[in-house]
C-alpha cells in the first residue's frame, strides 16, 4: 500500500503540473464517468495530501478525493516539472548529508535521489505509488498517450497527462465533505502543526488498550504510516509491537511521533522509505540502490537482526505482515 510520503509527492507533482491549468477529465474505464464529467474543463486551484489521501480543489465547491489503497497508482506522462524540494533531494537525506552524491538507480530501475527524472514530452511516464518508478518508451511519440489498462480517471492538460488506476476511493466531494473526511484522520506532520499533532497522537495512544503495532497503522490515530514505516519505527524505538498503547511510556510515544516527522520528510525528499541511520557514503549508496539494504527489519524474516543477530520474526497483525526482532524489541 502506498504510504504517506508517496501521496505527498504525488500531490506536489499535481501542484506543479496541473494547478492553474484547465484539465480534460475522462474515465476510460467508465467507473468514474459522472465524476469526470463534472471535472472536465475545470481548473484545479489547490492540491493537498493528508496521510494516504489526496484532495484536489476545483471551482463551484468541488473536490476530487483519491485514496490509492493497496493497488492504486498514478501514471504521469508528458512535460513533467519537478517539485524543487524533490529535485534538490541530493544531499538532504535527513540523517545523512550526502551532498554531491550522484543519482543512484535502485534494483527496480528507479532514480532514488531525484525519483522522477528530467522533464519529458510524451515519451516517458512516471508511475507514482508506494515506490515511484520511471519507464521510457522510445517507440511511442503520440500525444496524448494511449490508454493502457483500466484507467479510472485521466486528467489531461495541453502538455501533461495523469492516469489513475486501481484506487480504493475516487469521488467528488463538497468542501464540507472534504473537511469531514480530513477531520476523521489522525495528525500528519506535513499538514498539522507538529507540536499540536504530537499532543493529538500521544492522547490517542494513551487511551487505547490496542497493541501499538496496530495503532500505528490506524489512520484515525496517525496519518500516513503503513507496513514498512510501522515495522521500522517500532524497531527504532526498541518497542514490542504487542505492547498496549496505554502501556507505552509517554516519552516513547513522543519519540515515535518525532521519528515519524523525520522519516516522512526524508521519504518525501528522496522518494524512498529510508529508515537506517549512521550510514557512511558507501552504505548510503548501497541502501539507495537496493531496498534490501534500506531497512532494519522490514522484509527480513528469518535473517539475522542487524543489531543483535537474532532471527527476525514474521507474523500477522490485523491481517498485515509484521516484521520485528524478539530480542531488541523484547
Automatic annotation (TrEMBL):
Instruction: Kindly name one Pfam family recorded for this protein.
Output: H2TH
Q: Tell me what this protein is called.
A: DNA-(apurinic or apyrimidinic site) lyase
Residue ranges for the region (Disordered) are 120-144
Q: Which organism is it from?
A: Microbacterium dauci
Q: How would you classify this enzyme at the top EC level?
A: lyase
Q: Which Gene3D superfamilies match?
A: 1.10.8.50, MutM-like, N-terminal (3.20.190.10)
Where in this chain does the record put each FPG-type domain?
A: 296-330
Per the record, the similarity remark reads:
Belongs to the FPG family.
The protein's required cofactors: Zn(2+)
- Domain Formamidopyrimidine-DNA glycosylase catalytic, residue spans: 2-89
The record, for InterPro entries, names: FPG_cat, FPG_N, H2TH_FPG, Ribosomal_uS13-like_H2TH, Znf_DNA_glyclase/AP_lyase, Znf_FPG/IleRS
Keywords assigned:
DNA damage, DNA repair, DNA-binding, Glycosidase, Hydrolase, Lyase, Metal-binding, Multifunctional enzyme, Zinc, Zinc-finger
* SMART domains according to UniProt: Fapy_DNA_glyco (SM00898), H2TH (SM01232)
In the Enzyme Commission scheme, what number(s) does this protein have? 4.2.99.18
Amino acid at each position: 500500500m502506498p504510504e504517506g510520503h508517496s501521496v505527498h509527492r504525488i500531490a506536489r507533482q499535481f501542484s506543479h503540473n496541473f494547478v492553474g491549468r484547465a484539465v480534460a477529465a475522462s474515465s476510460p474505464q467508465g467507473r468514474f464517468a459522472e465524476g469526470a464529467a463534472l471535472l472536465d474543463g475545470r481548473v484545479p486551484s489547490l492540491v493537498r495530501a493528508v496521510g494516504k489521501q489526496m484532495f484536489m480543489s476545483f471551482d463551484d465547491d468541488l473536490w476530487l478525493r483519491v485514496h490509492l489503497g493497496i493497488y492504486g497508482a498514478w501514471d504521469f506522462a508528458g512535460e513533467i516539472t519537478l517539485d524543487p524540494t524533490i529535485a534538490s533531494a541530493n544531499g538532504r537525506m535527513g540523517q545523512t548529508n550526502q551532498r554531491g552524491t550522484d543519482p543512484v538507480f535502485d534494483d527496480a530501475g528507479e532514480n532514488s535521489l531525484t525519483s522522477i527524472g528530467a522533464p519529458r514530452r510524451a515519451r516517458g511516464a512516471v508511475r507514482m505509488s508506494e515506490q515511484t518508478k520511471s519507464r521510457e518508451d522510445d517507440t511511442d511519440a503520440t500525444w496524448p498517450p494511449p490508454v493502457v489498462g483500466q484507467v479510472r480517471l485521466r486528467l489531461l492538460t495541453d502538455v501533461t497527462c495523469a492516469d489513475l488506476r486501481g484506487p480504493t476511493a475516487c469521488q467528488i466531494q463538497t468542501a464540507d465533505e472534504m473537511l469531514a473526511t480530513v477531520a476523521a484522520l489522525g495528525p500528519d506532520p506535513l499538514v498539522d502543526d507538529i507540536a499540536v499533532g504530537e499532543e493529538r497522537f500521544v492522547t490517542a495512544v494513551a487511551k487505547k488498550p490496542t497493541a501499538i503495532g496496530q495503532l500505528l497503522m490506524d489512520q484515525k490515530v496517525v496519518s500516513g504510516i503503513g507496513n514498512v514505516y510501522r515495522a521500522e519505527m517500532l524497531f527504532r524505538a526498541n518497542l514490542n509491537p504487542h505492547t498496549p498503547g496505554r502501556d507505552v511510556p509517554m516519552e516513547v510515544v513522543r519519540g515515535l511521533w518525532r521519528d515519524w516527522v523525520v522519516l516522512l520528510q526524508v521519504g518525501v525528499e528522496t522518494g524512498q522509505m529510508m529508515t537506517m541511520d549512521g550510514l557512511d557514503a558507501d552504505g548510503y549508496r548501497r541502501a539507495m540502490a537496493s531496498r534490501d539494504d534500506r531497512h532494519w527489519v522490514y522484509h527480513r524474516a528469518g535473517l539475522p537482526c542487524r543489531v543483535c543477530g537474532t532471527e527476525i520474526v514474521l507474523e500477522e497483525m490485523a491481517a498485515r505482515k509484521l516484521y520485528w526482532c524478539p530480542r531488541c524489541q523484547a
